[in-house]
Design a protein that fits this description.
Layout: E1 3-6, E2 9-12, H1 15-27, E3 31-36, H2 44-53, E4 57-62, H3 69-72, H4 74-86
Parallel strand pairs: 3-4
Antiparallel strand pairs: 1-2
Length: 88
């Protein structure tokens, strides 16, 4: 079995180890959470709990939106997504 030297040490190319690496990469991703304060389907309190459980997140709460901020405030939503992707 071929091995690969990394910062973490020596790794083989097994399926199990690839899955572990993939899991680590997912944990290190940055996430954008956009939510409407007036959402009656998923209360904003639920989002506050979620944002405390997820690493590397940016949370934006739209005060005038409900469950679909991407439809209710499309220009603002698109601007916020683009800013997030650009790292602003």
């Amino acid at each position: 079995m071929k091995s690969l030297e990394t910062k973490q040490g020596l790794l083989s190319n097994s399926v199990e180890e690839n899955e572990l690496l993939r899991g680590r990469a997912i944990e290190e991703l940055f996430r954008l959470i956009i939510h409407g304060e007036k959402d009656t389907v998923v209360p904003v309190e639920t989002i506050r709990i979620l944002e405390n459980q997820i690493k590397n997140n940016t949370t934006i709460i739209y005060k005038n939106s409900g469950h679909s901020p991407m439809i209710e405030e499309p220009e603002r939503f698109n601007d916020d997504v683009l800013k997030f992707l650009k790292g602003e």
